[in-house]
Specification:
- By secondary structure, the chain is an alpha/beta fold.
- The protein has 14 helices and 5 strands.
- β1 (43-47) and β2 form a beta hairpin.
- α7 (170-177) packs parallel to α11 (253-262) and α11 runs antiparallel to α13 (275-284).
- The protein is globular and about 50 Å long.
Length: 300
């Protein structure tokens, strides 16, 4: 076994051991510590009528797609799509049996605690490989929303970045993220285990973003008649908010090592590994690699 592989294995074991001191990696089981767990950055929605469901969404994990889908299935468009922006935020529509968690409300905590212990709720979280997610967040927030404006990106999303002229590389961003405690990362970069309490809330299922069959089955179990795949468009392919963006970014072995440290618990809980990321960055120098890729056009 190569030294680098041994190091990665040791890092993974240490991360799992450290986390297992306080949480259990199980779904479908109520954890009495849950009411004490803070909920950072995720969006939680639930319905109390049959079929009952509870969903947690994390930014950069088809979050906007699911919010648009759920509201579109339940609520008249005139109430949630004014000016085309409300779809990006969860709303409370009790008259349409759509409830939203508010982490500043003790009532919300009490309601979710009831949901957690009710076996009649189908409880699921939509998840994504953390490597894919941070690539998407860099593309969406730096290239798309901030349009390569360093001050915008540093002020809003990654304050640990150093002031500089020229473009922030993907590697520089990951390195800056590693200097911030995960709990304090912006919601678009914060680990999913924190945004959705993946280790403490008794989920029935983690639904992988790339598995469209799983996504459609989750929608069906939640009582929605239209399959998710038919009601949503392909996410993040042509750019963010209509602006041209890149499909991959330059990286190296160290980029992946840092990401593995930041998101090691996510990977352990969700069963992901960083093997493909290591191979892509080490052998080809880009975050995603396919044989027919034109790196000069698709990556930055």
């Amino acid at each position: 076994m190569a030294a680098s592989t041994k190091l990665r294995s040791v890092i993974g074991i240490l991360l799992v051991l450290a986390s297992s001191m306080t949480v259990a990696y199980r779904t479908g089981e109520y954890n009495e510590t849950f009411p004490l767990a803070e909920r950072y950055g995720g969006h939680q929605l639930w319905s109390t009528k049959e079929p009952k469901f509870y969903i947690c969404l994390t930014p950069k994990v088809a979050c906007s797609e699911w919010l648009r889908y759920i509201h579109g299935q339940r609520v008249p468009s005139r109430l949630w799509s004014r000016k085309g922006r409300e779809i990006y935020r969860p709303h409370q529509f009790p008259q349409y049996d759509l409830h939203r968690f508010d982490r500043n409300s003790s009532v919300s905590f009490a309601q979710v605690q009831i949901v957690a212990q009710d076996p009649n709720f189908y409880k699921f979280a939509v998840v994504r490989h953390p490597w894919d997610r941070i690539n998407s967040a860099y593309r969406s927030k730096y290239e798309g929303q901030c349009r390569f404006d360093n001050e915008c990106f540093r002020r809003v999303f990654v304050p640990s970045l150093e002031v500089k002229d020229g473009i922030y590389t993907f590697h520089e961003v990951v390195k800056a993220l590693s200097r911030i405690p995960p709990i304090h990362l912006d919601g678009h970069f914060r680990p999913q285990t924190l945004t959705c309490d993946l280790t403490t809330f008794p989920y029935d299922e983690f639904v992988d973003l790339k598995n469209i069959t799983q996504m459609d089955l989750a929608a069906k179990r939640s009582g929605f008649k239209t399959p998710f795949s038919q009601a949503s468009h392909e996410y993040g392919v042509s750019g963010e908010n209509g602006r041209p963006t890149h499909k991959c970014h330059y990286c190296n072995w160290e980029t992946v090592r840092l990401a593995e440290v930041i998101y090691g618990v996510d990977a352990a809980v969700l069963g992901y590994n960083f093997d493909d990321a290591y191979a892509s960055c080490k052998e080809h120098g880009v975050s995603v690699w396919k044989p027919d890729m034109n790196v000069s056009e698709l990556c930055i």
